[in-house]
UniProtKB/TrEMBL annotation:
<keyword id="KW-0238">DNA-binding</keyword>
<keyword id="KW-0804">Transcription</keyword>
<dbReference type="Pfam" id="PF00126">
    <property type="entry name" value="HTH_1"/>
</dbReference>
<dbReference type="InterPro" id="IPR005119">
    <property type="entry name" value="LysR_subst-bd"/>
</dbReference>
<dbReference type="Pfam" id="PF03466">
    <property type="entry name" value="LysR_substrate"/>
</dbReference>
<dbReference type="InterPro" id="IPR050389">
    <property type="entry name" value="LysR-type_TF"/>
</dbReference>
<dbReference type="InterPro" id="IPR036390">
    <property type="entry name" value="WH_DNA-bd_sf"/>
</dbReference>
<dbReference type="GO" id="GO:0003677">
    <property type="term" value="F:DNA binding"/>
</dbReference>
<keyword id="KW-0805">Transcription regulation</keyword>
<dbReference type="InterPro" id="IPR037402">
    <property type="entry name" value="YidZ_PBP2"/>
</dbReference>
<protein>
    <submittedName>
        <fullName>DNA-binding transcriptional LysR family regulator</fullName>
    </submittedName>
</protein>
<feature type="domain" description="HTH lysR-type">
    <location>
        <begin position="11"/>
        <end position="68"/>
    </location>
</feature>
<dbReference type="InterPro" id="IPR000847">
    <property type="entry name" value="LysR_HTH_N"/>
</dbReference>
<comment type="similarity">
    <text>Belongs to the LysR transcriptional regulatory family.</text>
</comment>
<dbReference type="GO" id="GO:0003700">
    <property type="term" value="F:DNA-binding transcription factor activity"/>
</dbReference>
<dbReference type="InterPro" id="IPR036388">
    <property type="entry name" value="WH-like_DNA-bd_sf"/>
</dbReference>
């Protein structure tokens, strides 16, 4: 214990901040700018870090730097360590939005960024002009990695799933919406307000994050298709929710999309009610319980909820929590 304590006392914790930015930016000059030190100082810090870890960390390939295998491993760990240190020293102290330089990190789907990302960025800048916002796109595998992800970010925007129901998870409702079928406005095959299952079963589909070998998958639209009893004939797959209306509007395909996104995109689309009851969902902000008493995090999540509820009106009535 004594040796471990001595080693910890001998560490220069400023190197952690430099390490985090070097691994994020993969560029010495940009990392120096983000930390607020000179480029020679950042280079000297990199040299010290390389000696400490006995590894290059950043490896030049062609005209740019890439992370070494050790650098890749540290990139995941340093975020958790720095977040923990920031939370530790924030405990019992005041938080001043006007002066904070904290970076707030969120994982969310691209259609949520389209609906409220701009307003969130503006609200954050208005309330905390020196703070930074890092928005990371949610991927299809988010549900399977949520236990690790939730430790490294300030929040995740997602519909509720079984994997999110852990004792350490907290959440707040952002907005409600519903699924609708969409087809191009000039698609003569779909001319009614409600489309029947036979027509959908015979249609060609655009489906985001589709996996032929895993249906239904954890992706929300896949679960909704399964609820309708549909195994779609997928003609176009795309790793984006926001792109789906664009692909439908210019083709004879159909898709399931969030009603709010279909209305906001301004494309020549026909919106059709899905067959049968249901089709409603709720988007929630999720965070780890350890952030409950962090005043900076509490301020940020209240901002996110306020922006979402003011920007994205609820649609489709009530939804399950």
């Amino acid at each position: 214990m004594k040796n471990a304590t001595a080693r910890l006392a001998g560490l220069d914790l400023n190197l952690l901040v430099v390490l985090r930015e070097l691994l994020r930016q993969r560029h010495v000059t940009r990392a120096a700018d983000r930390v607020g030190v000179s480029q020679p100082a950042a280079s000297a810090a990199l040299a010290r870090l390389r000696r400490h870890f006995d590894d290059e960390l950043l490896v030049r390939r062609g005209g740019r730097y890439e992370l070494s295998p050790v650098g890749e491993q540290l990139a995941e760990q340093v975020e958790t360590v720095c977040d923990g240190i920031e939370a530790l020293f924030a405990t019992g102290g005041g938080f001043e939005p006007a002066t904070t330089r904290r970076e707030f990190r969120m994982v969310l789907p691209d259609h949520t960024i389209a609906l409220m990302g701009g307003e969130l960025a503006a609200a954050l800048h208005g309330g905390a002009p020196h703070a930074r916002l890092h928005l990371m796109l949610a991927r299809a595998a988010l549900t399977s990695t949520i236990e690790d992800t939730i430790h490294t970010v300030d929040g995740v925007v997602s519909q509720p799933t079984a994997r999110f129901r852990m004792p350490e998870m907290r959440s707040a409702r952002l907005y409600r919406d519903r699924w609708v079928c969409v087809a191009a406005a000039d698609n003569e095959r779909f001319g009614r307000d409600v489309v029947d299952l036979d027509a959908l079963a015979g249609a060609t589909w655009v489906v985001p994050y589709h996996d032929d070998t895993d249906f239904p998958s954890v992706v929300p639209v896949s679960r909704e298709l399964a609820r309708l009893g549909l195994r779609p004939r997928v003609t176009v797959r795309v790793d984006s929710f926001q792109a789906v209306p664009h692909l439908v509007a210019a083709s004879g395909h159909v898709a399931l999309v969030q009603e709010r996104l279909a209305l906001a995109c301004g494309l020549p689309l026909r919106l059709l009610d899905c067959p049968g009851p249901g089709g409603r969902f709720e988007a929630r902000l999720w965070w780890h319980a350890r952030n409950d008493d962090d005043p900076a995090h509490r301020w940020f999540r209240e901002l996110v909820v306020r922006v979402a509820r003011g920007t994205v009106p609820d649609r489709g009535g009530s939804a399950p929590g």
